[in-house]
Backbone:
């Protein structure tokens, strides 16, 4: 088996460029996810612009605006979590990961409430082209938040075990990249669906 | 940990290693190559049935509905289960070694990318039992929304294969950027590595868009959504845009690695440096970027706003310039060389010869007024087979023969290789040249039947297909027998300079005893040009 | 380059141009043309064939020549000549294709403008694709037929749509094609220039009957067309 020195030698070219290979891999993955959401967003926008629907009046901008604030706050707590991990502040890390998970769950609950009220008022994935594209786009985003939530909980468990002690913060940083991506996608979605 | 890293030693007694989970990039490479080649044969078998039907007008062997299922799966298997993933096989085996690395950046992700392929293939093919997909590999809506259940399985299969492709691409890019050995600067990367970088970037940017589109189609079929329901206001053209946004770059994903392979072979078999290394490297990136801007040339007759078509005509023609740069550079590479016509070189020369025809006819297709006549006809079928079969598949064969000794540790039989090349070259031209004529004269594509005036052209094409199908036999025989008991190959039978030739055949478990340090480019062949001397020129 | 080489290259270039022009003139790979706009497309096609012939001959010729001339001779184990590039040459073979692209692009654009120039007072016929047949509606007369009848020399505007899946309306002898998409109307212009009957074929996969979704364009003299139309109207009453 390779020694740790040899192992880090494997990524020497990356270190010289200041690029960690796991981070680079995550960036590339996020690029592919941007294109995936791009496909769904373009379908949504196409129909929003060409097939205006009365149903868009049913959207609750205030509620979801509040939900957006919740998600944005969770990005802040992720930043705090990373800072804590880098500083070796285990308590801070645990607290901020927990807050992130709670806020993420709150966001999902808020989305669930919005979905339920829309369905109650007759707008469903099968009621119209607008309904199809709304629920598909926000649904896939919600799935991504759920994945992030599970990842946050896993990191929380690892932090409690001391898995990020002594400044070993890479795992938190990678998680953070994903979480910020999910947040930024939401900002785009909120703008495109609710604001314009 | 160690058990999943048991290395490849390239012999039958270790067959078990190849059918289980293994994170060694060399094992994964072989798994890709063998699996995709099997799908190539399946796709080819489907084609043989189609060409039998088409040898005579009238509907004999297959009715219209059955023909559509064979045709759809022929295309889908060839594109998604053969020509796209086969290059991941080459990249897997060679890329880490070429850059002096011990493995890929993410070995477990690498194994996972491979293991998505066999189930995806099974899903696509077992769809025949529930009513196979029959809307063509392009699955235009609303037709594909109405197809039998197999169409949904088809969508799931393609999503899995796209995911596999993206995972591989992430590995290739990360590995190339972060794991190069000392001295392997950007401008000393072998051209195959450049080609894989350009390809991987396209995979990452374009494939997810297809995934999104397939999700919409699957939701319409399975969950009652209305994306493509015309009554509800759905737009069939939206599918075309989403689909082709990926599927045009896809064709560059299918050919760029092949161009990288022949760029490796020409210098070795001419004993000269590659001509214009930087321009070849940059042209791969140019084709990659430009490839994202041409997609609507598949939609010139769709009834789009007429003005929207012209920019796509322009970009589709512009992409000929970096392609031409490559072709001229390859020609200049072999010029003044000492050309050895062994099988890898024969297939590489065949690549240029046949890709040229495909490329030139691509310009014809880019010209909107002419495209209006030949779009969706056998002219397109001929064009695509010249670039994909005459082009990409020739490059695959070139790579298989070139790297056969390195991968298996044994040398293939050269006479059988030459026979394969001859049958393949004649078969390809005989199959597809008549199709250009048939298309121009009025034969549409994707038809089980045709007007009697097209009979002789179809008979020729079927004869070519039979020759092509048979041409795989000397290759398969050669590959199996040579792998089992061919003469042992040395580390460097071709006297190549890229790093894979500096290690044993097959390579040792971690590729290098010590990390290599490189101080020159990979194509420093040849002796310097001697100044023109009158009469008493020194002997070479 | 030596004088002899320059002369040889000049002769070669002239020969290639002559061959290209000959190919453009002689090529006969399209169906018999029966519509006015088709002659414009044919002209463009000939230009493309001429250019393609020259490019093909240069590259394939160069390839064959190189393989024959620079083939390793038995016993010669020396290396080839080690040049890595030549900026002037690389510039030339980037610029010349770029110029050709501009020429071909511009010619194509001009041809496109010509073949899609709208007519004054065209005769409008609505075309409906349906699995697996074509229907032609003459709105003024309220007539529906399964074949497209038109008078010679009369500009026609087809308005195409589909009742089910995407089809594509193609008349090979007109070099004209347009998709018929459900939920949308697309337009195709032509003016028939030959009398006779010309096949219509479906050019977009539309299901099991795609290959047999055919019809005819029947081109009459103006008088015969009037007679045909009158007979159709009478028969439908």
Residues:
């Amino acid at each position: 088996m390779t020694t740790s020195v040899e192992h880090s030698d494997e990524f020497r070219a990356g270190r010289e460029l200041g690029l960690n290979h796991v981070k680079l891999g995550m960036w590339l993955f996020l690029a592919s996810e941007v294109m995936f959401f791009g496909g769904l967003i373009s379908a949504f926008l196409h129909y929003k612009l060409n097939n205006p629907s009365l149903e868009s009046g049913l959207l609750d901008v205030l509620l979801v605006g509040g939900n957006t604030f919740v998600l944005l706050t969770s990005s802040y707590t992720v930043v705090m979590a990373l800072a804590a991990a880098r500083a070796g502040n285990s308590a801070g890390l645990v607290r901020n990961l927990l807050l992130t998970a709670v806020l993420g769950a709150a966001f999902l609950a808020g989305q669930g409430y919005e979905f339920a009220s829309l369905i109650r008022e007759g707008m469903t994935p099968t009621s119209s082209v607008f309904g199809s594209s709304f629920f598909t786009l926000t649904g896939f985003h919600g799935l991504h938040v759920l994945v992030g939530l599970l990842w946050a909980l896993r990191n929380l468990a690892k932090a409690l075990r001391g898995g990020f002690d002594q400044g070993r913060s890479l795992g938190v940083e990678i998680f953070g990249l994903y979480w910020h991506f999910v947040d930024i996608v939401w900002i785009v979605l909120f703008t495109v669906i609710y604001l314009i | 940990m160690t058990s999943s890293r048991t290395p490849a030693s390239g012999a039958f007694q270790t067959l078990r290693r190849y059918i289980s989970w293994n994170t060694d990039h060399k094992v994964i490479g072989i798994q890709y190559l063998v699996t995709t080649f099997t799908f190539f044969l399946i796709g080819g078998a489907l084609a043989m049935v189609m060409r039998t039907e088409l040898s005579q007008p009238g509907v004999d062997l297959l009715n219209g509905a059955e023909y559509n299922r064979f045709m759809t799966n022929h295309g889908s298997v060839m594109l998604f289960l053969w020509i796209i993933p086969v290059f991941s096989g080459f990249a897997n085996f060679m890329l880490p070694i070429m850059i002096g690395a011990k493995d890929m950046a993410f070995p477990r992700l690498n194994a996972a990318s491979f293991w998505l392929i066999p189930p995806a293939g099974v899903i696509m093919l077992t769809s025949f039992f529930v009513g196979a997909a029959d809307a063509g590999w392009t699955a235009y809506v609303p037709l594909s929304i109405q197809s039998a259940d197999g169409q949904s399985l088809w969508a799931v299969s393609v999503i899995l294969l796209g995911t596999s492709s993206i995972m591989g691409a992430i590995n290739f890019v990360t590995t190339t950027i972060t794991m190069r050995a000392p001295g392997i600067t950007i401008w000393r990367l072998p051209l195959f590595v450049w080609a894989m970088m350009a390809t991987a970037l396209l995979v990452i940017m374009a494939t997810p868009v297809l995934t999104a589109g397939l999700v919409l189609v699957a939701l319409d079929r399975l969950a009652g959504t209305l994306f493509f329901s015309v009554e509800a206001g759905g737009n069939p053209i939206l599918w075309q845009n989403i689909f082709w946004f990926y599927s045009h770059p896809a064709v560059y994903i299918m050919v760029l690695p092949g161009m990288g392979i022949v760029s490796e072979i020409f210098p070795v078999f001419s004993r000269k440096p590659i001509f214009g290394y930087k321009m070849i490297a940059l042209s791969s990136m140019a084709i990659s970027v430009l490839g994202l801007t041409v997609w609507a040339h598949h939609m010139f007759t769709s009834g789009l706003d007429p003005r929207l078509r012209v920019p796509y005509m322009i970009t589709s023609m512009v992409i000929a310039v970096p392609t031409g740069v490559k072709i001229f550079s390859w020609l200049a590479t072999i010029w003044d060389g000492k050309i050895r016509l062994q099988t890898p070189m024969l297939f590489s020369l065949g690549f240029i010869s046949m890709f040229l025809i495909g490329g030139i006819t691509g310009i014809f297709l880019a010209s909107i007024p002419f495209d209006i006549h030949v779009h969706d006809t056998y002219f397109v079928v001929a064009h695509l087979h010249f670039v994909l079969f005459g082009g990409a598949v020739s490059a695959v064969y070139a790579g298989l023969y070139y790297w056969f000794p390195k991968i298996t540790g044994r040398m293939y039989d050269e006479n059988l290789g030459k026979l394969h090349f001859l049958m393949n070259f004649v078969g390809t031209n005989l199959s597809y040249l008549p199709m250009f004529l048939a298309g121009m004269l009025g034969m549409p594509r994707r038809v089980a039947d045709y007007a009697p005036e097209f009979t002789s052209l179809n008979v020729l094409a079927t004869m070519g297909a039979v020759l092509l199908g048979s041409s795989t036999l000397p290759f398969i025989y050669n590959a199996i027998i040579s792998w089992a008991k061919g003469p042992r190959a040395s580390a460097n039978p071709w006297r190549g300079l890229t790093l894979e030739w500096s290690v044993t055949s097959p390579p040792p478990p971690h590729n290098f005893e010590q990390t290599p340090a490189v101080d020159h480019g990979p194509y420093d062949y040849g002796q310097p040009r001697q100044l023109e001397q009158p009469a008493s020129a020194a002997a070479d | 380059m030596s004088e002899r080489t320059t002369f040889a290259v000049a002769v070669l270039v002239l020969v290639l141009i002559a061959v290209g022009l000959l190919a453009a003139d002689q090529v006969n790979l399209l169906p018999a043309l029966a519509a006015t706009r088709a002659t414009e497309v044919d002209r463009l096609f000939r230009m493309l064939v001429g250019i393609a012939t020259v490019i093909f001959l240069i590259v394939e010729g160069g390839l064959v020549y190189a393989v024959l001339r620079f083939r390793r001779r038995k016993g010669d184990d020396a290396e080839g000549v080690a040049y890595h590039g030549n900026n002037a040459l690389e510039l030339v073979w980037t610029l010349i294709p770029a110029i050709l692209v501009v020429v071909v692009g511009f010619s194509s654009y001009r041809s496109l403008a010509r073949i899609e120039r709208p007519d004054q007072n065209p005769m409008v016929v609505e075309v409906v694709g349906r699995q697996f047949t074509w229907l032609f509606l003459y709105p003024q007369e309220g007539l529906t037929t399964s074949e497209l009848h038109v008078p010679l020399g009369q500009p026609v505007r087809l308005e195409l749509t589909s009742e089910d899946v995407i089809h594509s309306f193609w008349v090979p002898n007109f070099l004209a094609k347009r998709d018929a998409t459900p939920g949308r109307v697309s337009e195709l212009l032509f003016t028939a220039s030959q009398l006779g009957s010309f096949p219509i074929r479906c050019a977009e996969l539309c299901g099991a009957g795609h290959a047999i979704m055919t019809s005819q364009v029947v081109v009459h003299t103006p008088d015969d067309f009037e007679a045909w139309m009158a007979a159709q109207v009478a028969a439908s009453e």
Notes: The CA atoms of residues 85 and 111 of chain A lie 30 Å apart.
